[in-house]
Write a structure and sequence with these properties.
The structure is a single chain. The chain has about 280 residues and is α+β, with helices and mostly antiparallel strands. Helix content is about 30%, strand content about 25%. It folds into 3 domains: about 100 residues, Orthogonal Bundle (Arc Repressor Mutant, subunit A), CATH 1.10.10; about 80 residues, SH3 type barrels; about 70 residues, no CATH class. The protein has 8 helices and 14 strands. The strands form 4 sheets. It has a 5-stranded antiparallel beta sheet. A hairpin with a 2-residue loop joins β7 and β8. α1 crosses α3, α1 packs across α4 and α1 crosses α5. It is globular. This is WYL domain-containing protein. InterPro entries: CapW-like, CapW_CTD, CBASS_pafABC_assoc_protein, WHD_CapW, WYL_dom.
Length: about 280
Amino acid sequence: MAKTPRGHQERVKAVEILLLWEGRVSRPRLAEIFDVHGTVLSRDMAAYAHLVPDNCQYDTGARAYVVTPYARPQLTDGRFSEYEALIGTLALRGLRAGVELISAQQHATHIQHGPFSRIHTAIREGKQIQIEYRSLNNPEAHERTIRPHALIQAGPRWHVRAYCDRAKEFRDFNLGRISRVDDPAHSLLPGAEEDQAWDTLITLRLIPHPHLSAAQAQLVRDEYMAGTVARVFEVRLPVSKYLVQAYRAAVDTSRQLPPDFILAVHKPSELPPGALL
């Protein structure tokens, strides 16, 4: 009996991952991940539907397979790390072109595929959702109605950018602190087009920490900046703080010192409010 090609097996697993975590899978979505002919991708989706018919149904209007309410992982483990690896934000332990690759970056977001797919659907369709949330300021579980419009992957944690009806402003919500997500519903809450901070791009410059020696500073410039004086980013205002955290860059260079901090934010006092909070 002929063996099933490994590439086909990987793509069929990808079909399940996208179904569970995004709520649907289509040929254009798979084409964003796999560089194979569209006809092949259609066969992969049909093969999955044949293998696990209870997990999906075909939506002729959307031209996509959509997840069923009772879908369960069958070919995968149903872990968020599988979704991260598929969309390219976290390398799985294993072989890449014959070279072993182990990533020290591990996700710290605990969320099930059902709630995540409802958040993904709400973003895609511009709808609102009711969530149960906890925060450091309010550690008791409480309900919030939000209209999400973007996902943010920040190091080991994921956030959803959303307008919060309770706070009357756009905020970032840690996915790991969301314990319940209701089905998306029609929304009159402000959407992405009204998120002025999100639409604001700022220039963020990272430089060698000023307390490094000349030789150490040159080493840092060679390592992080290709020998130039600074690493420059054009970044959305709400995302800049996560970038600073990811690079472990000092904001207060009198307190945040080498060797714990070898990078520093250039002129942090000149950045707009919200850039470093």
